[in-house]
Design a protein that fits this description.
four-stranded antiparallel β-sheet
C-alpha cells in the first residue's frame, strides 16, 4: 500500500486549501478512507472519514462545517477540502486506509503534507 499526500502550503487565516492523497496497492473502491493531522508536540488527531462509495461521511467537531472529505474511485484519490482555515488547523495532514478514529490502529502512513495557517 502506498499513500502520497500533497497540496499543503502556507495560507492566511480564512483561506482555503485542497489536499490530495494518491492511493495505490489495494482495492481503493472497497476501502473506507480517513484523514488525520498532527501538530507539533501533539498526537495524531482524526479529522474525517468517508466510507466506500462515499455515502457516509463523518468529521471531528473541530473541522465539521469547514473541511469536507471526498473521493474519486476512478482515480483512486482521496481529497480534503479545507475552508475558513485558522491557526489551529496548522499541522501535518495524513491519509489512511480505514474508518477508525484512533491513529494507533493504523500501520501504514504516507509522508504527509504540511499546512501552515499564518498571517
Amino acid at each position: 500500500v502506498q499513500l502520497v499526500e500533497s497540496g499543503g502550503s502556507m495560507v492566511q487565516p480564512g483561506g482555503s486549501l485542497r489536499l490530495s492523497c494518491a492511493v495505490s496497492g489495494l482495492p481503493f473502491n472497497n476501502s473506507d478512507m480517513s484523514w488525520f493531522r498532527q501538530a507539533p508536540g501533539k498526537g495524531r488527531e482524526w479529522v474525517a472519514t468517508i466510507n466506500t462509495g462515499g455515502t457516509v461521511i463523518s468529521s471531528s467537531d473541530s473541522v465539521q462545517g469547514r473541511h469536507t472529505i471526498s473521493r474519486d474511485d476512478a482515480k483512486t484519490m482521496l481529497y480534503l477540502q479545507m475552508d475558513n482555515l485558522g491557526p489551529e488547523d496548522s499541522a501535518g495532514y495524513y491519509c489512511a486506509v480505514g474508518g477508525q478514529t484512533w491513529s494507533l490502529n493504523y500501520k501504514t502512513w504516507g509522508q504527509g503534507t504540511q499546512v501552515t495557517v499564518s498571517s
